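Structure ticket #2291
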Amino acid sequence: MYLSTIDHPHTGDDGTKPSRKRALFSVSGNVFALGAVSLITDVSSEMVTAVLPVYLVLGLHLSPAVYGMVDGTYTGATALLRLAGGYLADVTRHRKLIAGLGYGLSALAKLGLPAAGNAVGAIGAVIAVDRTGKGLRTAPRDALITLSTPPHLYGRAFGIHRMMDTAGAFAGPLVALGVLAATAQAYDTVFVASFCIAAFGVLVLVLFVRDRRGDQPPKGTVSFSALGDLIRLAPVRRLVLAAGLAGMVTIGDGFVYLLLQQHEHLGVGWFPLLAVGTNLSYLLLATPLGMLADKIGRLKVVLGGYTALVLVYLLLFGPLGGWPLLVVALGLYGLFYAATDGVLMALAGPVLPKALRTTGIALIQSGQALCYLLSSVLFGLAWTAWGPASASRIAAVLVAVAVLAVGLLLRGIPATEEQHA
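Resolution: structure written out below.
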């Protein structure tokens, strides 16, 4: 039903905004199509992600410092490719094509994992290729969401997309567990199955997602000099700084789950279910928090999300234990993602010129990913030097400071489209 409404307008026949009762379904069908692609792709990605930390640390016996470098590579090493992909998508105006290339590259990388075997260097190279695909696709995909949605519905649109994306992330670890149980812990089978699912996601993108190319922008609008003009826009500059600061104080999911696993002495078979708990919380909260962000202000929701992250880091070595710790920590962790991931992009959408929308989103994401790379390496070193308890408490203090700084940086960011010369 939703895929057939891709080209329908967002307003009623009389040009008015839809009623609140129908607001959820007033979002473009293109958003639902992109959400379906992300859902399928995340099933594939999370099949691998759910087993990778325990495989590397407990199976290959990597130290926390080495794992920090691998984890940083997984998210941050290809950050500059996000910027290249965003710029290329704006120049060619073929955002669907660039996103499709990224999805396809990530799918092919899944076949490289069985070939890598136990070689850490080869595993790192395969991960870099996979993240190259993610770097290429993320900004064009998010730009397509904003170009398919009126500004007053950005929060809702990103919330719906992230909800569907997280439904795949929720299912991925469960699928991985099923494959492992059926194949006597054969990790290669997980990787091959992950490739097949990712390839199906690319097919859905080709068949159902519609590009949003619009009119040809004036000559010179998309150029290297225009990029300089973009970063000179005060709201854009503040968003890049805030995203980088947030990335600098955020540690990887794998670290959080490893700390919980060690604290509670969980068996290896339970490890993938930690990601399931986070994704369930994210799945349930993504759309409500996106709608709340449109209503009360996106910055308030983002800051609330990072406040939840402070609590997660404190709980890792706090007074709670057992199932109460797992439920509260994973619930708050999912809330953090639901309140920050798509909402930050919704916050950025109105201040970015349409002709450079993809490049601007990529610029913000690249700054955050590069800082995340540094954060993962530093946290791994801090764990090795001072122990996990001290490292996690230091991280909590840094996130609390970042909440105040991000609030000051993003205060006054407009919630509606601005006109740019």
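Closing remark: The two ends are 39 Å apart (CA to CA).
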